[in-house]
Specification:
Elements (H helix, E strand, L loop, with lengths): L1 H6 L1 E2 L4 E2 L37 E4 L5 E4 L3 E8 L2 E6 L5 E11 L2 E10 L5 E9 L11 E4 L3 E4 L4
Antiparallel strand pairs: 1-2, 3-4, 3-11, 5-6, 6-10, 7-8, 8-9, 9-10
């Protein structure tokens, strides 16, 4: 029976023993289990209407652009194919810098998802060749960072 008593847990002191010399109430009460931390619902600065075909961030599903804002699907990003958009939402803009791209010298600023901070592409700030001026103020988003949502068949 001594071996059996050694295997029994003493609840007042939480030790394995055959009996306890600690009087009840001498130990502080047990701590409650840690509360489950609830994450706040993810919110975006802008939501696009559900009735429109949209492009969203593939990483966090933040809305990025309506299909109606698409100008061209024939662009090349830093890591593959990209789309040119007239306007986008839920993106932040980094500092502008000059880059020599396939179509010449441009002043561009990297854009990133406001929700998950993933770099998505860039914004054309200034084009130095007259044939490229139509890109100024437009946005490139790489296809690998976008997913189509709402009514694509």
């Amino acid at each position: 029976t001594a071996a059996l008593g050694a295997l029994l847990r003493c609840f007042p002191c939480e030790r394995l023993c055959g009996g306890c010399a600690v009087p009840p109430g001498a130990l502080p009460p047990a701590m409650p289990p840690p509360a489950r931390r609830r994450l706040p619902p993810r919110t975006f600065r802008s939501y696009l209407p559900r009735s429109h075909r949209t492009y969203s961030c593939v990483h966090c599903r933040a809305h990025l652009a309506r299909h109606e804002e698409l100008i061209s699907k024939s662009f090349q990003g830093s890591h593959g194919r990209a789309y040119l958009f007239n306007s986008v939402v839920n993106v932040g803009c980094g500092p502008a810098e000059q880059r020599l791209l396939l179509t010449g010298l441009h002043s561009v600023a990297d854009i990133f998802c406001q929700s998950c901070k993933t770099t998505l592409g860039w914004k054309y700030e200034q084009a130095f060749e007259s044939s490229q001026k139509y890109k100024e103020g437009k946005f490139i988003i790489e296809m690998s960072h976008m997913v189509k949502e709402n009514g694509w068949d």
